[in-house]
Amino acid sequence: xxxxxxxxxxxxxxxxxxxxxxxxxxxxxxxxxxxxxxxxxxxxxxxxxxxxxxxxxxxxxxxxxxxxxxxxxxxxxxxxxxxxxxxxxxxxxxxxxxxxxxxxxxxx
Length: 108
Hints:
The protein is an alpha+beta fold. It has helices spanning 8-18, 60-64, 66-75, and strands spanning 23-25, 31-33, 78-84, 89-95. It has a domain at 8-76. The strands form 2 sheets. A two-stranded antiparallel sheet has the order 1-2. Strands 3-4 form a two-stranded antiparallel sheet. Strand 3 and strand 4 form a beta hairpin.
């Protein structure tokens, strides 16, 4: 995960440097291309529930998950399909479970 102190700017920089333009093959050899516009993944407008890229819509816990995206797309077998006939498209959801080490701190 990215650090807890991740900001809008550092998340964008990580996305641009490590993800934009990447092409990934999933377990079924389907090609997935990460586009510039996919930067919207760590933004969410609370009122409309839409991914609108604006500093006020930045959600740090979504941004901190960026390092999981490529490993999840390339390694998981859990892929779910959601048909959206109204929009004439299909969404795919790639799901993976990660173990995040927890550093216990002494309570004072």
